[in-house]
Amino acid sequence: MKINIVSAGGKAVRLRLPNALALNDLTVGLLAKALKKRGVSIRRKTLVKIKRDIKRYTRSHKDWKWLEVTSASGDTVTMQF
Amino acid sequence: MKKTLGKRIAELRKEKGLKQDALAEKLSVSPQAVSKWENDLTCPDISLLPLLAETLDVTVDQLLTGNDPTPIVQISSPEQKKDIKDMVLRIVCESYKGDKANINLPLSIAEALLTSEGCSLKLNGAFCGNDIDLKEILNLVHHGVVGNLMEAEDQKGDTVRIFVE
To answer: What DSSP line would sit under A20-38, residue for residue?
Structure first.
């Protein structure tokens, strides 16, 4: 998983986390618990399906940008898997 | 900050999973030429633009200007309908101040979130997208409707566009 935060001035923070660490059964379980605490009762089965779909997409679309946020001043945040 | 032509070529090439050599071969140019385009040292020859755009699956206008495509709405027949696993839900939110957010979500994931009990996928915040019912949009897709499904703009100038490809 790559999260890139680039300021308009060119300063950048690049976070890199292996997908196997970001997307696994443990993180799915932790996420399900965290969501439950916040009142979102999403089933573990659904999260497992989402995890599988993310992995499938990541394999076929290597540079797929899942999220791209650009501020008016030129700061950008992108998220890729 | 607008991207340069070279950056757009590099980005589109990577999205397609092509190496510089492969793109060069398709266009019958040298890999060095592609490298120079991507580093904004030179520009592709004008006669190459249609083929370059076609190879990168964009229009010449998109390639040159970087403008987002605004696909028209299409209704596919059951035979032409793509598998939901191969479809993408794109949500583009732009504020009148110039902030922009693009969310590119495989439709299968959006569907899993929307159909899960007690779970909702909503566009919250000071956007005009607060009342958009994404479940209805998903229903349209199931009926074979794809393309630019929704465009909303509020008085301030914030916009939300939703398209399915």
So the answer is: HHHSSHHHHHHHHHHHHHT
Domain that residue B26 falls in: 5-65
pTM score of the predicted model: 0.65
pLDDT, tens only, A49-64: 888 888 888 888 877 8
CA end-to-end distance (rounded Å), chain B: 26
pLDDT tens profile B9-31: 998 888 888 889 989 998 999 99
How many domains is chain B built from?
2
Question: Are B128 and B151 contacting, i.e. CB atoms less than 8 angstroms apart?
Answer: no
CATH of the domain at B48: 1.10.260.40
Tell me, yes or no, whether B23 and B100 share the same domain: no
Rounded distance between C-alpha atoms, residue B128 and residue B161, angstroms = 10
ipTM: 0.79
> Per the CB < 8 Å rule, is B119 touching A40?
yes
Cross-chain residue pair B117–A43, CB shorter than 8 Å: yes
